[in-house]
Amino acid sequence: MKKIIIGNFKMNTVPSEFKTYAMTLATKVRGTKNEVVVCPPFTHLSFAKEFLGGSSVAYGAQNISAEENGAFTGEISAKMIKDLGATYVIIGHSDRRGMYKESDKTINKKIKTALANGLKVVLCVGESLQIRESKQAQNFVRKQIDDDLKGIYENELESVVIAYEPIWAIGTGKNATDKDISKMSEVIRKEIETQFSAKAAQNITIVYGGSVGIKNYKKILSNPSIDGVLIGSACLDVDDFSLMARETY
């Protein structure tokens, strides 16, 4: 069964390192039935266009401005990354929500901007350990989905991937259990059904992110409730990432 394998580089590697990485990755995953996506830093996107363009590997950015253009020093627009051949953008990652205090209102605006510019969105949702321990995780994720997708048309969901990334599992070596992943996937689909339709719920792409690596990816990807994974630091090793990307299910 085809899966989507997404690599989030965060603020790691320099452009010259990514050049080699991209060439190696394009060769190693040739022929895979999975959809493979890498999201390096903005500075790497020109190399992505040069060495991944025309390959089976898609690429995208880790963030965009909510604004189309204008006097926003230091920001990067959807149109800019689209012009470099990017097809994806990660929006609402826990790093952005936590460290940069991005609200659901801002995330909603970014999603609309991305979709209006023909980009596919990887929308990250997930709860902290405090929220989880207070038994509010499901309600919290439901509200994130409602607020983040407010005003989105149902047909636009074809360009949205929802990444469930429990914050307590990111970079900690911990992981949600199969039961945790299945339950939250069910919650997400049910909320999509409530806000849109049963068809939309059935078709929405859901991936899991949270300390996914070479040691546990097979078990996680074998969970039938999810359609792929969002991989963080483990994607920096091109051999490991290629192996994960080539896996068949």
Order of adjacent strands in the largest pleated sheet: 1-2-3-4-5-6-7-8
Mean pLDDT, all residues: 96
- State the assembly state of the protein chains: single chain
- Distance from N terminus to C terminus (CA atoms, Å) equals 5 Å
Describe this structure in words.
The chain is an alpha/beta fold. The chain has one domain: TIM Barrel (Alpha-Beta Barrel). The chain contains eleven helices and eight strands. The protein has helices spanning 15-28, 45-52, 78-83, 94-99, 104-116, 129-133, 137-148, 178-195, 198-203, 217-221, 238-246, and strands spanning 4-8, 35-39, 57-61, 88-91, 120-125, 160-164, 205-209, 228-231. It has an eight-stranded parallel β-barrel, surrounded by five helices. Helix 1 packs parallel to helix 2, helix 1 (15-28) packs parallel to helix 11 and helix 7 crosses helix 8. The chain is globular and about 45 Å long. The model has no long low-confidence stretch (mean pLDDT 96).
Keywords:
eight-stranded parallel barrel; 249 residues; TIM Barrel; single chain; alpha/beta
